[in-house]
């Protein structure tokens, strides 16, 4: 069994996402999310440790279509080129670590992750006793 090194649970969810700095805006969605960062797919290569602004829409707890807009800062910590058939654009999987996020917003993300995933999605080992 592979040992999980992450301190926070992570779930696979597609949430609307905007990544920006002074020279660009990228609209995409998350592949997965944790209270400390996101993993997403983009069409622009960003250098490692690029400082960016992240705007994320997290579904509000116990509400139909309402979402909480979370605005924070992040850094690109991993970028992987990927090959997609039937496209002429380059694509990259990118991991972003949140460098500045309010405690309140981090709590919103943490509650969403904990309430949204089943144990197999978030890396918790399930035992039947």
Descriptive keywords:
globular, 6-stranded antiparallel barrel, 7 strands, disordered C terminus, about 10% helix, mainly beta
Describe what you observe in this structure.
This protein is mainly β and about 130 residues long. The protein has one domain (about 10-115): predicted glycosyltransferase like domains (Thrombin, subunit H, Beta Barrel), CATH 2.40.10.220. The protein contains one helix and seven strands; from the N terminus they run βββββββα. The protein has one helix at about 105-115; strands at about 10, 15-20, 25-35, 35-40, 50-60, 65-80, 90-100. A six-stranded antiparallel beta barrel has the order 2-3-4-7-6-5. The longest helix has 14 residues, at about 105-115.
- The CATH class turns out to be Mainly Beta
| Strand numbers in spatial order across the main sheet | 2-3-4-7-6-5
Low-confidence spans: pLDDT under 50, at least 5 residues? 1-6, 119-129
N-C termini distance? 19 Å
Quote the average pLDDT.
Answer: 84
Overall morphology: globular
The oligomeric state of the chains shown is single chain
- Percentage of residues in strands: 35-45%
Q: Tell me the number of structural domains.
A: 1
Helix fraction, binned, reads 10-25%
Number of strands: 7
Biggest pleated sheet: 6 strands, antiparallel, barrel
Order of helices and strands: EEEEEEEH
Q: If helices are DSSP runs of H or I spanning 4 or more residues, what is the number of helices? A: 1
- Please tell me how large the radius of gyration is: 15 Å
Q: Just name the CATH architecture.
A: Beta Barrel
CATH superfamily: predicted glycosyltransferase like domains
Based on helices, strands and strand pairing, what is the structural class?
Answer: mainly beta
- CATH topology, by name, is Thrombin, subunit H
């Amino acid at each position: 069994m592979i040992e999980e090194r992450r301190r926070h649970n992570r779930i696979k969810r597609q949430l609307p996402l905007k990544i920006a700095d002074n020279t660009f805006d990228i609209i995409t969605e998350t592949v997965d999310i944790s209270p400390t960062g996101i993993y997403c797919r983009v069409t622009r290569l960003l250098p490692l440790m690029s400082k960016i602004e992240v705007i994320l829409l997290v579904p509000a707890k116990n509400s139909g279509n309402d979402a909480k807009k979370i605005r924070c800062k992040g850094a690109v910590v991993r970028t992987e080129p990927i090959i997609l058939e039937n496209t002429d654009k380059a694509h990259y999987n990118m991991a972003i670590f949140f460098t500045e996020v309010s405690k309140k917003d981090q709590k919103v993300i943490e509650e969403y992750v904990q309430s949204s995933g089943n144990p197999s999605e978030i890396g918790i080992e399930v035992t039947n006793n």
